[in-house]
Amino acid sequence: MFFLTARDEAALTDISAKPDVTVNVVAKQWNWDFNYIESGAYESSTMVAMTGKPGVAATLPALYLPVNKRVEFVLTSRDVIHSFWVPQFLEKLDVVPGKANRFQVAPTELGTFQGKCAEQCGAYHSAMLFQALISAAEGECGFFSPHSWWPLAVAASAAILFLGLAVGWWLVIIGMFLAALAVIGRIYEYFRGMRAV
Ligand SMILES: [Cu+2]
Fold first, then answer.
1. DSSP state of 106
2. Any domain includes 93
3. 129: CA distance to ligand 1 center in Å?
4. pLDDT for 137-186, tens place per residue?
């Protein structure tokens, strides 16, 4: 038992491999900010009201991770000691002010996993919940990646539409057609669990 524990622990705390994705997880009273270093996407959140009613899960901060990629978490705290815990990651690590604790995982399963703060950190400690969403890794958040095409497509459709108002009705039709395509594409992407940045 000790051997297995020691072996797994060594594997989880090994951060010598170069990660594909680095996420700076910032714990704060009482929520989480997720900063995606490579893609330059920063998401901050405010405290979630635990009403006990259905639908709260949708308001929780979401940690987006690609499947089958090596992710390194850099854990920092803005105030007191918290603890970053997604049970399926087999690792629970303290988030300490003034210190950056790190660990790596490579999620192998698609889906939504519950995460929480595992250190009593004050009055609303129990509200420090989040969701880890593991989705297909289709490119990073680059200019032409699936994550960023949407605003571009909408802008292009709108431009054609307005140009159409000056040029002729046939261009308006084309603009509307493209706009509809963009909307349908975005909805399709959304339901596939893709990430919108
Ligand atoms: Cu906490």
1. -
2. yes
3. 9
4. 655 444 445 556 777 888 888 888 888 888 888 888 998 898 898 888 87
If asked whether residues 97 and 186 sit together in one domain, one would say no
Most confident of 76-85, 135-144, 186-195: 76-85
Residue 125 Cα to ligand 1 midpoint, Å, equals 5
- Asked if residue 40 belongs to a domain, the reply is yes
Q: Are residues 120 and 153 in the same domain?
A: no
Average pLDDT, the chain: 84
* Residue 9 alpha carbon to ligand 1 centre in Å: 23
Same-domain status, 27 and 72: yes
Which pTM does this prediction carry?
0.66
Residues 62 and 91 reside in one and the same domain: yes
**Containing domain of residue 163, as a range?**
149-191
For residue 111, report the distance from its CA to the centre of ligand 1, in Å.
24
- Tell me how far the alpha carbon of residue 92 lies from the centroid of ligand 1, in angstroms: 12
- In order of 26, 48, 52, 117, 119, the CA distances from 29 in angstroms are 10, 11, 20, 10, 12
- Sequence-distant (6+) residues with CB within 8 A of 154 are 179, 182
